[in-house]
Design goal:
The structure is a single chain. It contains six helices and three strands. It has a three-stranded antiparallel beta sheet with strand order 1-3-2. The protein is mainly alpha-helical. Helix 1 packs across helix 2 and helix 2 packs across helix 5.
C-alpha cells in the first residue's frame, strides 16, 4: 500500500526526472491557463469564444495553445461540426474530468484560504518592503 492507503504498482514514470514525459503533462495541467481551462470545462462543453470569456484574461493565442496541449494529452475532446460557419465545441474526456476534479479541490481550497494568504502577504510586504 502507498501513502494514500491504496495498492499501487511501481510507477513507470517519475515527474522529478527531467526526461520523464509526465513532466510535460503536469506543466499543461498545472499551468495557469491549463488549470483554469480544465476547471471551466468541468462545468460543461464550451465553444472557443465562450471558453475564452469564462477564462477571463486568457488571450486567443494562449487558449488555443492550451487547448491543443490538453487535447494532445487526452484531457480535452475537440468536436468540429461541418456546418457553415464551422462549429467547434470543447469538452473534457473522462481522464480530463478526473484531472479537473482534483484541480478543483485544490482551487476551492486556495479560494477558501485566501484571507490567510492575504494576511501573510501583507505581513511579508511590511517586513520586506513589498515586491
Amino acid at each position: 500500500m502507498d501513502s494514500t492507503g491504496m495498492d499501487s504498482p511501481d510507477l513507470a514514470y517519475d515527474v522529478f526526472s527531467k526526461s520523464c514525459p509526465s513532466r510535460g503533462t503536469l506543466e499543461h495541467v498545472t499551468g495557469r491557463w491549463g488549470a483554469l481551462t480544465l476547471g471551466a470545462l468541468h462545468e460543461g462543453s464550451f465553444r472557443f469564444n465562450e471558453l475564452r470569456r469564462r477564462v477571463d484574461g486568457v488571450s486567443e493565442k494562449m487558449l488555443s495553445q492550451t487547448l491543443h496541449a490538453l487535447e494532445r494529452d487526452g484531457l480535452v475532446h475537440r468536436d468540429a461540426q461541418p456546418t457553415n460557419p464551422p462549429r467547434v465545441d470543447y469538452e473534457l474526456t473522462p481522464l480530463g474530468r478526473e484531472v479537473a476534479e482534483r484541480l478543483l479541490t485544490l482551487i476551492r481550497f486556495v479560494e477558501g484560504r485566501m484571507d490567510d494568504v492575504l494576511v501573510s502577504r501583507e505581513r511579508y510586504d511590511e517586513t520586506r518592503g513589498g515586491l
